[in-house]
Amino acid sequence: MYGDQCVGVTVDDTGTLMDLFARLRESDYDLEKLPAPSTDSMGLSIIGYWPSEKLPEGHRLFEEEEA
Prior knowledge:
The protein contains one helix and three strands. The protein is of the alpha+beta class and 67 residues long.
């Protein structure tokens, strides 16, 4: 997002994204107030993202490949 990072997921359809969103809000991770995701089409898939949600500094969900 214009050079900023935010939390996002790639899914095959909006139904899957909405199911994930509902499960996140009902989870034990204190996400009851998580806003609905923004979406963009990626051709054959959809990305759902939360521009207002940030990961803690230095957190990595996946190890980045070294260049």
